[in-house]
Amino acid sequence: MKLYAIILTYNEARHIQACIESVRFVDHTIVFDSFSTDDTVRLSKEAGVEVIQRQFDDYASQRNAALKSVDGRADWVLFVDADERVTSELATEVQTAIQDPDFVAWRVPRLNYILGKLTKGAGWYPDYQTRLLKVGSAHYDPARKVHELVVLDGAEGTLREHFTHLNYETIQQFHAKQQRYSAYDARIMFQQDIHPKPQNFVLQPLRQFWWRFITLEGFRDGWHGFRLSWLMAWYEFRKYMHLRRLWQGNE
After folding, report:
1. DSSP annotation of 211
2. pTM, entire model
3. CB–CB of 238/180 below 8 Å?
4. Which of 21, 178, 182, 227 is spaced 20 to 30 A from 171 at the CA atom?
5. What is the pLDDT of residues 229-248, one digit of tens each?
6. In the listed set 167, 202, 228, which residue is the last one of a domain according to the structure?
7. What CATH number is given to the structural domain containing 29?
8. Residue-number span of the structural domain to which 194 is assigned
9. Co-location of 117 and 15 in the same domain
10. What is the tens place of the pLDDT at every residue in 56-66?
11. Are 161 and 193 in the same domain?
C-alpha cells in the first residue's frame, strides 16, 4: 500500500518544516500550495518534498484537486494541515489501518492547543477529522466549501491516536477566522431564505454559550473555556447581524 501525505498550504513558513518532519514515515509527501507569498515553497523544496501549486477557490475544491493529483500513484492519502503534527503513535496506527480491507477512510481525533492551552471542552475535543482516505473511494462534497464534508464509497473507521493541532496561536487569529466563518454561515442561511427574527439576536447567542460551556463541558477548561464559549456566543450574534445586513442589501 502506497501512502502519501498531502499538506495544504498558504503562507505557512512558520509551520511547514515541522509538519513535514512529522510525516517522514509516509512513502511520499506533497505540499499542495495556494501560491504562497512567503517562504513556504522554498522551505518545502529544501525539505525534499514535492510541491504542487494551484490557485485557491475553496477548501473542498482544493482537497479534491489534491486527491486527483495522486490518482494512480497512491493507494491512501493522509491529509495534514500545516499547523498539525503527526505523533509517532499516530504514525504507527495509520500504517496499520491502511492494511484493513474493511474501511475506505479513517477519522482522526485532534488535540487542539488554542492560545497555547490544550482545550478539551467547549467542542474542541475529540474534534474528529476524516483525513485518512483510500484514493478512488473518497471525495469532498463541492457544495460544502468550508467545514468540508467527505463523501465515501465504503465504511469509515476511527483511530485512537491524535493529531496535535496548534490552533489559534493568537487572539487575532481566532477573531479573523471566526469573522470569516460567521459571514460564510450567514450567507448560507441567506441562500436558504432564512430571515433573522428579533429573538435570534438574544436567544441564539445564549444557546450557543450554554451549549459550549455546559453541554460540551467548556467549564472543564476554567476561565479559558468560559472565554472561548463567550467568544463563540458573540460570533453567533455576529452571524445574525451579517444575515440582517444581507437581507437589507448592505453586505
Report:
1. I
2. 0.90
3. no
4. 21
5. 999 999 999 999 999 999 99
6. 167
7. 3.90.550.10
8. 171-248
9. yes
10. 999 999 999 99
11. no
